[in-house]
Amino acid sequence: MRTSYISVLLIFMSCIASAQELIPPIQNHTSIEYNGASQNWDLAIDDSGIIYAANNQGLLSFDGLTWELFQLDTGGIIRSVLPHGERIYTGSYQEFGYWSRDLKGEMHYTSLMSLLKEYTLQSEEFWEILTYKDAIYFRSFGAIYEYKKGKIKPIKEIVSNKMIVFNDRLLIAVGKEGLFYLETDGSLNTLPNQEILSGKRVLDLEVVGDDLFIGTAKKLYKFDGSSVTTYHSNELNRLLSDFEFNHLTKFSQNELLIATLRNGLILHNIETGNTSIFNRESGLQNNTVLGMAKRNGKVWLGLDNGIDEIDLASPIKFYTDHTGELGAVYDLAFYRNSLYAASNTGVYRLDNNGITMIKGAQGHSWNLEVLDDVLYSNHNSGTYKVVDDTFKVIENRTGSFQIIPVKDRTNTYLIGNYTGISIYEPSGEMREFTELNFPVKKIIFEGPSVIWAEHANEGIYRLGINSSLDEISFKDQIGHEQKGLNHRLKIFKLNGQIAILKNKDWYQYNKFKDTLELFKDLKNYRNHELLLEDELGYWFRDRLTNDIKFTNFRDTELEVSFKELNMRTVKGNERMIKAKDSIFYLTLKDGFAKIDLNALIDSRSEVQLSQPVIKGVIDLKQRYDLTDSPTIPYNSARQLTFLAGLPDSDAAELHYELSGEQNIEGHIIDGKLTFQNLSQGDYQLKLFALGPQGTYSEVTKFKFVVDSPWYLSNLMLVVYAFLILATIVVVYTINKRKLKKHQHLLEQRLEREHRERIERLEKKRLKDEIMIKRKELANTTMMAAKKNEVLMDIQGELNKDKDKFSNQYRLKHIMTKINQAIKNKDEWQVFETNFKEVHEDFSKDLLESFPHLTSKDLKLCSYLKMNLTSKEIAPLMGKSVRGVEVHRYRLRKKMELDSQENLSNYLIKNF
């Protein structure tokens, strides 16, 4: 059980206020981060929340995500800055003018020096710019200039240190002469009753209500409308004398912010007189504050080395040990008017005197408990109690994790240690449960006789204990069904129920069924570890993101991001401690954080979510007009970059959604969003901020078009259409020509086929005629042969019986007639004519091959060509068969044919 006392806390808080003060979140922006010079002379914030700094290298701007540096062409140091309307006025050495963004979002500088015409500056630097009515005033140490309606004119050549609008009049601090109203005609009217300022240089002025606060190097004064008097806080004036005053500005209606040159920033409450100091020990980068600006509870400081941001309105404050002595804090306890911290280096007391280590408390300490007005420490070397700021040993046999009172028994405690559980009674001896031999990190009572023990490495156990606390009646390991995952089990008591975080899910123990069941009420808190339960609600830690969450499971649910805690939590060993009412403390790796729950709820209900801005659209070749929907060339869209800003916002993150031919979404971290290889088509980019509680800012929309590639452009589409049409025409023409040619070829083919058919028919007819002629020739020849044969037979018969004829003359005449009939030339001519019709070039071809052949040879060859035998040839030639054979033999000789060669076959084959 933890006990905390409101009176103790109040005393502790007063100690903290005067010694180790709790500091609001401070964010450092180094010169490396903003890529500029170290020194920043002036700071200003425009209406949208963009921060501007007058830097040694130029004008710095911060849009909530990224820093930009804009340099003068001369490379001069910028000393002053004032945003007004769409312009950012700056002053430098012998130079003043304004910066403005063009339609593409690029910043350009316009010098106003040319408007001075013949007027010559006297080595002047412009340290202050102020807007009054419808004019802009630039102040150097030697003169004041007015810029109005496009004209510049010197108003007053005078040494001045500061100017301010007071009672609707322009008031200036003149050297060491005091304060004067600057009239429109250039005359000066003194502020009444300011003799106390005589001989003092006024460095800064600020109006709070009806009063004018006046700052000099050593002291603060106030003009109440009738006279100037020394500010009533002697303590503040002492601090200003020590720290050296530089600048002054109003933080609220009763609070002042005072920048010093030697010890950072002072926050002073006019009503209470309370003063807070923020310096290097508090977390600033430098103690010399050269400029400052405020907006929505945040103060921006331009330092001699860097730029810092202090969130004075934050519900979270930090205590940080910059010496490193304290180390990582594991627990806190309020005890006897002091705050005690257990850390990895020991146990410490924090009070008005600073940090003091408890004697003998060196080493790793896990836990602090105040039980029955005794402060106990569970230490790496044992269990101790703190007596007169000294460690007194309770048990040092082994280290321990926890000490808790035994339910329904007084002055009896259980100690979870490295080897098991010990029973401690201050009036008796220390003893142990001998049945246990494992490290017990946490103990929870289910009832008077049942406890739960969390093994440091291997899961959890449900243990039965007897009334005399001398033995374990039963020991059940719980949730060990999945081997290898038991080390992820943690036990808690939540709303009187035993709750177990197993892996990522929450379970509750059903003692009637002796089983674990899903804890439905915690289904939205998977992988969230319980840090604290009290009457206000429950604190959880997201084990994945290390964010801290609070809920009462009714109408309140809050989240404190890991970033808001400066990423300083002791991961896996966070401890949340209830102090009083709505005040909680969270251990950190180098101190602790104080969280005001009520203030946190109020701040979350007033979250400032500004609308994101798009500052630039850039492709590989150019930057585009932001007032129109640009068309991006396809090749240039291979890398398309959007520059985004989120000024003056409490957003947790900046989200984007790209819709169109491609749909992409995600988060923007550094203000730069790059898309690669976007397809052609119409797109819309949406930007919106997400608040800590899941709220959304107003959406910023930007439309653009990725043009078609050159081969899909409108011109090329026309070309393609023309080419397609031309192709169609060409194809049509070619096909038409092919068709015509094909038709022509078909006609020729048909004609050829017709002709060939006719020729075939003609050839066939001729062949038929030849065959007929051959047959006729053969028939005629055979008939002639038969006739000659008959005639020769007759002749032979007549020769046989010639002596019997009486009329020899008549016989001789008959024989002559027969010889004439046999050797009838007309028959040969008819044969020759018919033969030539059948074998047209036979004789010609034969004579070309054998020119020495005689007509008789040709005649014999003709008969042989007709494949006639010697016997058939003999009658035709009027010879005997022997005579034909002899003639054939001679013919073979003439033709020089081999004896084996058939003469008829030779003639038929070759001629």
Folded structure, characterized:
The chain is an alpha+beta fold and 911 residues long. Among the domains are: 7-320, Methylamine Dehydrogenase, Chain H (7 Propeller); 613-712, Immunoglobulins (Immunoglobulin-like, Sandwich); 839-911, Winged helix-like DNA-binding domain superfamily/Winged helix DNA-binding domain (Arc Repressor Mutant, subunit A). It has 12 helices and 64 strands. The strands form 16 sheets. Strands 58-64-63-60-61 form a 5-stranded mixed sheet, with no helix packed on it. Strands 1-28-27-26 form a 4-stranded antiparallel sheet. Strands 2-3-4-5 form a 4-stranded antiparallel sheet, with no helix packed on it. A hairpin with a 2-residue loop joins strand 22 (245-252) and strand 23. The termini are far apart.
Question: Which short descriptors sum up this protein?
Answer:
Arc Repressor Mutant, subunit A; single chain; five-stranded mixed β-sheet; disordered N terminus; Immunoglobulin-like; alpha+beta; 911 residues; Methylamine Dehydrogenase, Chain H; four-stranded antiparallel β-sheet; 12 helices
